[in-house]
Structures are given as C-alpha cells and as structure tokens.
Amino acid sequence: MRALTAAAIGLAAALALVLTITAIGVPAGRTSPKPLLTTVPRHP
C-alpha cells in the first residue's frame, strides 16, 4: 500500500510540474538559422 501511495504522489508531482511549465509557456526567443556542427571540420 505504501508503494501505491508513493507512486501516486510521484505521479501527481510530475503532473503538477508539467502543468506549471505549460502554464508559464515557451520562453521568448528565436532559434539560430545556422546548423550545429556535429563533427570536427577537417583541415586540408
């Protein structure tokens, strides 16, 4: 029974966190048009 209670509390906390982030909204800003480099450029 304790495990079920702990799982319910954890689920409620996770749901509250998601709802809080959703209510706050996406932070203002813009993404860079330049692609990120995933490898080190090779020098000739």
Automatic annotation (TrEMBL):
Lineage: superkingdom: Bacteria
Protein name as annotated: SPW_0924 family protein
